[in-house]
Design goal:
Mean pLDDT: 81
Strand order of the largest sheet: 2-3-1-4-5-6
Main location: mitochondrion
Shape: elongated
Pfam families: EF_assoc_1, EF_assoc_2, Ras
Enzyme class: hydrolase
Family: Belongs to the mitochondrial Rho GTPase family.
Oligomer: single chain
Strand content: 5-15%
Structural class: alpha/beta
Helix content: 40-55%
Subcellular location: Mitochondrion outer membrane
Number of strands: 21
Radius of gyration: 40 Å
């Protein structure tokens, strides 16, 4: 929006009329109506509104309102009238400055009209005024009568708005402003693809093609470098353009009036008129349906790999603290804190490895996709990968309910929430996933601890990310984020008698009716196991609620802790329905094992007195309560035998061994299902499951019938 101001009789309205009609008007009104020039007519493809102000027809209040709306103001004076020139500094510039904010001054253009009436130029008088006021962009002498410089006047007015000098250059110091240097330095580092501190010919051509859609000819490249060589000693190094040479070129563009060149570069890299990255550039729109997650796609990982290789100067597949700082120099702040080193995998020096680097990006994308988009914007993903925005790097997964219906998933990141009472070993469980044993965990500072741990696991040859989240033990205030996950870990300390109670209450309160798979972890299994102060033991609780038996775990090892449990968690998260089927089979298996023990006892009872001493030998393990007068009855001994803690522990060990073998069978069936979903495979799996079911039911019936027959014989006795 352009406003033309004047006192009277300087030809302001004539300028506007001459532009529109392309001829000098015979009759000139006191004020021209507001004129709109379409975008397809202007060189910059921007619609332009021209507003005329007349002191005779409009009030000061109307003028103030128009000034507040204007993008550029043209102050018209007559070159043959010294009083109109004096009014520029005595009236108009002070009035405009009083009505605009200091931080958002409107650019001014001085227009000297009626140049056809004089033979001399007014520039000698105007130049001191331009040096005094930084808001003045330029001065143009023109003539409305013979149409001299009329179109140039409007071009400079548009240029003052679209390509202002103020944010870029300081005329007094004759150098770039600090904010401009900072922005151009980031652009240089993003364009320096090999991070060697210079832009070689390939990088310069890529930069030229990115910003101006055309490469530079070899001779043009040499001409540019020769200009820099003649003016700077260290502007060109190893036949490439250094940062100092890059900044000098833009200084030269501005000094020669080619502001649009620098602004084209800045806007291509996401900067606005205040040299700040725009919200549209940093946070492009991305649709996020409910119950879906966000992940990085293959192209994004390739880009991040190139960024890692660019800054891993010693090629040790890890980023030292200095290399991390160098990587984030294009950021306005440091995005990673010391907790990141305890969230992802590190090497023996505590440096983030390549796998840990990608894991941290995966974690950020999963938890806060907007922040991931922002980070990718700072690194210049859309420019380097020639994409419309960073949104092209994100994959939004489909709804989890669809995955359950189709019994397969395309996701690569799975979340496991770890719950447990204080001191149960949750933090140790997380750090063990990163390969840190108890000794390594003790060196972690309290303010550097992390509530997240993420790394890769392999499920049937496919690399998947497992994200562990330690949930604070606040039973009454578990949020939706604490409950939303793919698999749940309930951790208790086997050496603490009150530890399991929290897990049991949380499960019954939040997960008993949930379809989310749950696993109970018996942490600190290297310590002595004590009886839990709960109505049911952990094994009985799991049996009652159709859960897997408690999985023993310890990180008190000399080497890195075993990671098999994390692979199981990932498998359960990928195939939750298979996990439920496995639990049902385990229930029947437990029933079958108990029935088998009963059958053995019945056989012993029928064999007579020679095997009585076998049962009596168990007296050293528990006190047997006599159920008859003789105290030697085989039936009495067998009844008490079934209640022994020793026998219960034997059954638990038996179930654990069979569970491991059965899990391998189920995993194999899943693998076959993933690779071949033919009807024959499905039928074979169904027949195998039916066999286990029939075997367990048959053993149970046989045991019941055996006891019934024995009781009948005992009554006859």
């Amino acid at each position: 929006k352009i406003i033309y101001t004047e006192k009277t009789k300087v030809g302001k309205t004539s300028l506007i009329m001459s532009l529109v009609s392309e001829e000098f008007p015979d009759e000139v009104p006191l004020r021209a109506e507001e004129i709109t020039i379409p975008a397809d007519v202007t060189p910059e493809r921007v619609p332009t509104h021209i507003v005329d102000y007349s002191e005779a027809e409009q009030s000061d209040e109307q003028l103030y309102q128009e000034i507040s709306k204007a993008n550029v103001i043209c102050i018209v004076y007559s070159v043959n009238n010294k009083k109109s020139i004096e009014k520029v500094t005595s009236h108009w510039i002070p009035l405009i400055n009083d009505r605009t904010d200091k931080d958002s001054r409107v650019p001014l253009i001085l227009v000297g009209n009626k140049s056809d009436l004089v033979e001399h130029s007014s520039m000698e008088t105007i130049l001191p005024i331009m040096n005094q006021y930084q808001d003045i962009e330029t001065c143009v002498e023109c003539s409305a009568k013979n149409l001299k410089n009329i179109s140039e006047l409007f071009y400079y007015a548009q240029k003052a708005v679209l390509h202002p000098t103020g944010p870029l250059y300081c005329p007094e110091e004759k150098e770039l402003k600090p904010s401009c240097i900072k922005s151009l330095t980031r652009i240089f580092k993003v364009s320096d693809l090999d991070n060697d501190g210079i832009l070689n010919d390939n990088e310069l051509n890529f930069f030229q093609r990115t910003c101006f859609n055309t490469p530079l000819a070899p001779q043009a490249l040499e001409d540019v470098k020769n200009v820099v060589r003649r003016n700077m000693t260290d502007g060109v190094k190893d036949n490439g353009l250094s940062l100092k040479g890059f900044l000098f070129l833009h200084t030269l563009f501005i000094q020669r009036g080619r502001h649009e060149t620098t602004w084209t570069v800045l806007r291509r890299f996401g900067y606005d008129d205040d040299l700040e990255l725009t919200q549209e550039y940093l946070f492009p729109m991305i649709k996020m349906p409910p119950d879906c997650t966000t992940e990085l796609n293959h192209n994004a990982y390739l880009f991040l790999q190139s960024v890692f290789d660019k800054h891993d100067k010693d090629r040790d597949c890890a980023l030292s603290p200095e290399e991390v700082k160098d990587l984030f120099k294009v950021f306005p702040y440091m995005p990673w804190g010391p907790d990141v080193n305890h969230t992802v995998c590190t090497n023996e020096k505590g440096w983030i490895t390549y796998q840990g680097y990608l894991s941290q990006w995966t974690l950020t994308t999963y938890l806060d996709v907007q922040r991931s988009l922002e980070y990718l914007g700072y690194l210049g993903y859309s420019i380097i990968c020639e994409q419309e925005s960073q949104a092209a790097a994100i994959t939004v997964t489909r709804n989890k309910r669809i995955d359950l219906q189709k019994k397969q998933t395309q996701r690569s990141v799975f979340r496991c929430n770890v719950l447990g009472a204080r001191g149960s070993g949750k933090s140790g469980f997380l750090q063990a996933f990163l390969g840190k044993n108890l000794q390594g965990q003790r060196r972690i500072r309290e303010d550097h601890k992390s509530f997240y741990a993420i790394s890769t696991t392999y499920v049937y040859g496919q690399e998947k990310y497992l994200l562990l989240h330690e949930v604070m033990p606040d039973f009454d205030f578990l949020s939706e984020a604490d409950l939303a996950c793919d698999v749940v870990c309930l951790v208790y300390d086997i050496n603490n008698p009150r530890s399991f109670e929290y897990c049991a209450k949380v499960y019954k309160q939040y997960f008993i009716d949930s379809k989310t798979p749950c696993v109970v972890i018996a942490a600190k299994s290297d310590l002595h196991e004590v009886r839990q102060h709960y109505s049911l033991s952990p094994h009985e609780f799991c049996r009652k609620h159709k859960l897997h038996p408690p999985q023993p775990f310890t990180c008190s090892t000399t080497e890195a802790p075993n990671k098999d449990i994390y692979t199981r968690l990932t498998t359960m998260a990928m195939y939750p329905r298979r996990s439920q089927q496995l639990q049902i089979v385990l229930i029947y298996l437990a029933l079958a094992s108990s029935s088998s023990v009963c059958v053995v006892c019945c056989v012993l009872s029928f064999c007579g007195g020679e095997y009585t001493h076998f049962c009596v030998s168990f007296r050293s393990h528990a006190r047997l309560r006599c159920m008859c007068a003789c105290n030697r009855c085989t039936y009495c001994l067998c009844q008490n035998l079934l209640k022994l803690e020793l026998l219960r522990s034997i059954k638990a060990q038996l179930r654990r061994v069979v569970f491991n073998r059965l899990l391998g069978w189920v995993e194999g069936s899943i693998l076959m299902e993933a690779s071949d979903n033919s009807p024959r495979k499905v039928k074979a799996d169904l027949k195998n499951s039916t066999f286990w079911l029939r075997a367990s039911v048959g053993a149970t019936v046989f045991a019941v019938l055996g006891f019934a027959m024995y009781r009948a014989l005992l009554k006859q006795r």
